[in-house]
Amino acid sequence: MSAAMRDRERFSPAQCRAARGLLNWSPADLARRARVELEAVELYEAGDAELGVSDLVMVGHVLSEAGVIALAEKIAGEGVRFRQRRTPFVAPTSGARADEFDALPLTARRDLVWRVACALADWLASPLDVRGLHGG
Length: 136
Hints:
The chain is mainly alpha-helical. The protein is 56% helix and 6% strand. It contains eight helices and two strands; from the N terminus they run αααααβαβαα. A two-stranded antiparallel ribbon has the order 1-2. Helix 3 (27-34) crosses helix 4 and helix 3 crosses helix 5 (53-65). Mean pLDDT is 76; it is low at 1-5 and 130-136.
């Protein structure tokens, strides 16, 4: 596993809480899936204790396998996001109405909104290139 991939599985206490929020998991859900004591997860997320190396690896692995990655602070501030899905969502045709969006399954609507939000965040984080805007 590359260093970049390992970094995506290293979750700070705040990232751990945020990742659970994305997944709609309780601390007990995460503890059960990672085979870690519930109290250890709660203390870690509160910043009151550190997880052991093996527990931290298991928590990171479980969150990563669920599709959440940790974002390094050096990129755009510490955070988490869903890993890009392997099967792209096929959006409704242009001119789609709101009722067509509402008719989509909840997971498809979340996926579409998430993709738009990520694209906007990427655009906002990129340097503005104005060379071609005024014919120059």
